[in-house]
Write a structure and sequence with these properties.
Layout: H1 6-36
Length: about 35
């Protein structure tokens, strides 16, 4: 019998979404800094 912890699943999906946002926003921010410099 497997016990699932919803909080762990929420944290895992949240960190996954956060890393995806960082992977998208980080290069855009760097490009913006380079273009405006």
């Amino acid at each position: 019998m497997k016990v699932t912890y919803p909080i762990v699943d929420i944290l895992r999906s949240f960190t996954g979404a956060l890393s995806n946002c960082v992977n998208v926003i980080f290069p855009i921010a760097i490009l913006t800094l380079i273009c405006t410099a």
